[in-house]
Amino acid sequence: MDNNAPKAARLITFTLGDYWIGIPMASVLRVVNCPPPDRGGNLNIGVVQLGEHTVRLLNLRSQMALPDVASPNEEMPFLLVIWGLQQSLWGIALDKPPELLELPADLFKPVESDKRLSAKLQWFSHIAAVTDNEMSGTLLVLDLKAVFQAGEEDQSRSAHHQAPKLVAVPSSLG
Description:
It is a single chain. It contains two helices and eleven strands; from the N terminus they run βββββαββββββα. It has helices at 60-63, 144-160, and strands at 8-16, 19-24, 28-33, 47-50, 53-57, 78-83, 89-94, 99-104, 109-110, 124-131, 136-142. The longest helix has 17 residues, at 144-160.
């Protein structure tokens, strides 16, 4: 084996709006066709049932402050199943099947921390300018840890800011 060979990054890639996004292959469990609603595939409720497993959906459109767009396809989307924090299953619904891409690791540059303050860039750890005969564009590598930590912070913040429950107490018993 050649130790001088450049290291490669293997990513599952997909498009979301005008963004070309990659997730490290090691974080992806599988890509499946999303089941129809009568078999647990109702995307509107935020979970999908895959056999005995309940998969929560990660809405990257809302995380990245992108407008919701109805899928132009009448077919059910694909589901990219990934590990979340604490070994929970999460899915990303996609209109088109994702692709496997292998690129030299030195092509990727870290997104600077001051740039990660932008609402749309805070979820990305690395960026690569890809120019190839078959494809070209800017590939953003999703930082799943940042996405899930932000989701947990949002949940804990909303739990702490909920109005206290009021209990009706009769003013007189008499």
